[in-house]
UniProtKB/TrEMBL annotation:
Belongs to the glycosyl hydrolase 13 family. One of its GO terms (biological process) is oligosaccharide catabolic process. It comes from Kribbella kalugense. GO terms for molecular function: alpha-amylase activity. Keywords: Glycoprotein. This is Alpha-glucosidase. InterPro entries: GH, GH13_cat_dom, O16G_dom_2. SMART domains: Aamy. It comes from the Bacteria. Residues 25-430 form the Glycosyl hydrolase family 13 catalytic domain. Coiled coil: none annotated.
Length: 549
């Protein structure tokens, strides 16, 4: 078996390192705070690089760290080529990337191309310009349907109108918060400037980019604007929606790929594109971004048939376009999967996303915490055995539960405010993670934390789990170490047995078996190298995954 260190060294020089990488998402404001102001920062992340090394990841995905008013958690960017002073400096960034690279860890950074913040120099210039002047052409300004009515009845993703009125009576498009005006990607200056931004960070040593809302850049703004009642659902639009997944977006990404491929090794990119599976392939093509997020497992309940279908379909799609699939259960936008899996099935149909539970402040229905964690551990071990890239979200390696009881006065997500409380928002998964059993912010920093941490956080802390060989943290560390040694070709073979046991083999004899049923099942005649929970003799209990070889 190849040693972890040998594999890590080889990984550093491979152009396609991203194909089967384990990527750890850091939401920087909630990871580690070095100066006690309650907000995580780059020096805080640097101080935790040894933790990342011990965890065994291949890369860090760093959510936005740019100057921002935080109207949308940093996804409202003032300056794409700088660091928010509250988080550090460019020198801190260089130190961070140097520390990660010295440890054999790659760095992927978020890029937010659909919109800027309303404090960006371009937008300030646009507001100062008169109607019709060129400074407004970098954004999407239109006259209203009437003096008091916006150009169309389109809705923002965060609720309310997608248009905001300016002082001179014109309106600008914002598909998210009003503080996030959409850019006009038909403008050559916009296209050229983002190429410069990609070059700026690539020259500093960044290994790749996660492209936010990658399917929204190009828009069909032919007038008259269609009514929202006539628009197709995003998931069924197939390029026919005027605002999402327009075919013209791929011309942009072809230009990006040319730039990214000019580096040695080429810089990677992964698209966040909420599009039908059949449309996802173009974003992940070799002349496009190269890889695209697959959220299908994230949106599947813990059930055999749903997991099997998602895995089969996405491996087939990846094989068709020559990319590799991506697998993810939690991120900065969704209820943590250890909580989702502890909730009963959604009585309204669809997957259990936990949004109704959040609206009850985490009280109704009751979360079966033990069941949710057992399922989460089993699902993660299964995912780590799949061909493709695995994306982990900070804190999931601790089995961290969603914080449902955040007080309204502490909420920050614009989704909560724009929906007028119809949605609780995403703050519950963004609460700073616990490092120690006790302390003002459970080791997050020497002060408090910008989102309130609950009293029960200490039991989930790194300190509480570090020496416990049965803890979720220990499971992740063991799984990533074993995975690195077993990682092989980008394929699997199904072993069909029952409709509740998901069993497959990987080249080299690696087997993964997950029991989705209620009763224990017999394990194959092979050596168990790791399991997500205790075995019952030679049987695999319910909601448990085992790796064998």
């Amino acid at each position: 078996m190849t040693s972890p260190q040998t594999t890590r060294t080889a990984q550093k020089t491979q152009a396609d390192w991203w194909r089967q990488a384990v990527v750890y998402q850091i939401y920087p404001r909630s990871f580690a705070d070095s100066n006690g102001d309650g907000v995580g920062d780059l020096p805080g992340i640097i101080s935790r690089v040894p933790y990342l090394v011990a965890l065994g990841i291949d890369a860090v995905w760093l959510s936005p760290f740019y100057p921002s008013a935080l109207a949308d958690g940093g996804y409202d960017v003032d300056d794409y080529r700088n660091v928010d002073p509250r988080l550090g400096t460019l020198d801190d960034f260089d130190e961070l990337i140097g520390a990660l690279h010295e440890a054999g860890i790659k760095l992927i950074v978020d890029i937010v191309p659909n919109h800027t913040s309303d404090r960006h120099e371009w937008f300030l210039e646009a507001l100062e310009a008169a109607k019709g002047e060129p400074a407004r052409d970098r954004y999407i300004f239109r006259d209203g349907a009437t003096e008091d009515q916006p150009p169309s009845d389109w809705d923002s993703v965060f609720g309310g109108s997608a248009w905001a009125k300016t002082a001179d009576g014109q309106w600008y498009l914002h598909m998210f918060a009003a503080e996030q005006p959409d850019l006009n990607w038909q403008h050559p200056e916009v296209r050229a400037d983002f190429l410069e931004t990609l070059k700026f960070w690539s020259d500093r040593g960044v290994d790749g980019f996660r492209v936010d809302v990658a399917h929204a850049l190009v828009k069909d703004l032919s007038e008259p604007f269609p009514s929202k009642a006539t628009l197709p659902r995003q998931s069924e639009s197939y390029g026919k929606h005027p605002l999402w997944d327009q075919d013209g977006v791929h011309e942009i990404y072809r230009d990006w790929r040319k730039l990214l491929d000019s580096y040695d090794p080429p810089r990677s990119a992964v698209a966040e594109a909420f599009v039908p599976a059949a449309r996802r392939a173009r974003y992940a093509s070799a002349d496009g971004l190269g890889q695209a997020f697959n959220f299908d497992l994230l949106q599947a309940d813990f059930e055999y048939d749903k997991f099997r279908k998602v895995i089969e379909e996405n491996l087939a799609l990846a094989d068709e376009n020559g990319s590799s699939s991506t697998w993810v259960f939690s991120n900065h936008d969704v209820v943590r999967h250890a909580t989702r899996y502890g909730l009963p099935k959604n009585p309204k149909g669809g997957w259990q996303d936990g949004k109704d539970w959040l609206l009850s402040n985490g009280t109704e229905p009751t979360v079966d915490v033990a069941l949710g964690l057992r399922r989460a551990r089993a699902a993660t071990l299964l995912m780590l055995a799949l061909p493709g890239s695995a994306y982990l979200y900070q804190g999931e390696e601790l089995g961290l539960q969603e914080v449902g009881e955040l007080p309204a006065a502490n909420l920050q997500d614009p989704a909560y405010f724009r929906s007028k409380g119809a949605e609780k928002g995403r703050d519950g998964c963004r609460v700073p993670i616990p490092w120690t059993v006790e302390g003002l912010s459970f080791g997050f920093g020497p002060g408090g934390s910008h989102l309130v941490q609950p009293k029960w956080f200490g039991a989930y802390s790194v300190e509480a789990q570090h020496d416990d060989q049965e803890s979720t943290l220990s499971l992740y560390r063991k799984a990533l170490a074993v995975r690195r040694g077993l990682r092989t070709g980008n394929s699997l073979t199904w072993v069909d047995a029952t409709d509740w046991v998901l069993h497959f083999t990987r080249p080299g004899g690696w087997q993964s078996v997950t029991n989705f049923g209620a009763a224990p099942v017999e394990l194959p005649d092979a050596a168990v190298v790791l399991s997500s929970g205790p075995l019952e003799g030679d049987k695999l209990p319910s909601a448990t995954t085992a790796w064998l070889i």
